[in-house]
Design a protein that fits this description.
The chain is mainly alpha-helical. 70% of the residues lie in helices and 3% in strands. It has two domains: 67 residues, Winged helix-like DNA-binding domain superfamily/Winged helix DNA-binding domain (Arc Repressor Mutant, subunit A, Orthogonal Bundle), CATH 1.10.10; 152 residues, GntR ligand-binding domain-like (Four Helix Bundle (Hemerythrin (Met), subunit A)). The chain is elongated, with a radius of gyration of 23 Å.
Length: 235
């Protein structure tokens, strides 16, 4: 289970952090499990109390552990946002990864579009319209690139998620922000995607403005299927 650590390029507390974090992610340590006492951890890792306290402080700060006064140190439920941010740099490395992300988006965002059509306020619609107009201006002027256009596209989708009124959906989309930003920078540079993206957003927005959930859901599905088709064609 716990293994003694020795100092090299990493300080002792960092090595303890990495070892405990790996045990939690692998499932060897499960949510609700109680860690050995501070003195027992010192013996197991062969380190001082200072190193143990520093490691526990770091792991508590990112949501892996919880210190319960008078009870001990316990494993927390994994912080999804933290984990997504940790793995996002390696998620979009192959075409298959990109296709998987599009499929996940189809599951989430088609329903989000329908909810937005039911719940979006005039303010939400105004913000979405502004994002679409900025995207359109970038494309028409020839200034659109993978960074500035993907930023505007991402704003559109995040405003849409907020307008659903679902705090859970919005938090999920926030957690996926880095992955989606990375994926869009790849897809928007594919041939024909800049123009397709703007037109797709216009159709989604029109359906939301018309308060038509079915049409909004279908417009989002067409939008994401167009991305999927372009990704497949580029493979």
């Amino acid at each position: 289970m716990f293994k003694p650590v020795t100092e090299n390029h990493l300080c002792l507390s960092d090595k303890i952090v990495e070892q405990i974090k790996a045990m939690i992610i692998s499932g060897e340590l499960k949510p609700g499990d109680k860690l050995p006492s501070e003195s027992e951890l010192c013996d197991l890792f062969k380190v001082s109390r200072t190193s143990i306290r520093e490691a526990v402080k770091i792991l508590s700060g990112v949501g892996f552990l919880k210190i319960r006064r008078g009870l001990g140190i316990f494993v927390e439920e994994l912080d999804v946002s933290y984990l997504i941010n940790q793995i996002s740099p390696i998620l979009v490395q192959r075409e298959d990864d990109l296709l998987d992300i599009v499929r996940v988006r189809k599951l989430l965002e088609t329903h989000a579009a329908a909810w937005a059509a039911e719940n979006a306020t005039l303010s939400d619609i105004g913000e979405m319209e502004a994002a679409v107009n900025r995207s359109n201006d970038l494309v028409q002027s020839g200034l659109a690139d993978g960074i500035n256009l993907s930023e505007e596209n991402l704003k559109f989708h995040m405003i849409l998620a907020k307008s659903t009124g679902s705090k859970v959906l919005y938090r999920i989309m926030q957690s996926l922000w880095d992955i989606l930003a990375q994926a869009r920078q790849v897809t928007v540079e594919l041939p024909g995607r800049k123009e397709q993206s703007v037109e797709g957003h216009k159709k989604i927005l029109e359906a939301i403005k018309s308060k038509n959930p079915e049409v909004a859901q279908q417009a989002m599905l067409y939008h994401l299927e167009a991305i999927e088709a372009v990704v497949r064609k580029s493979d």
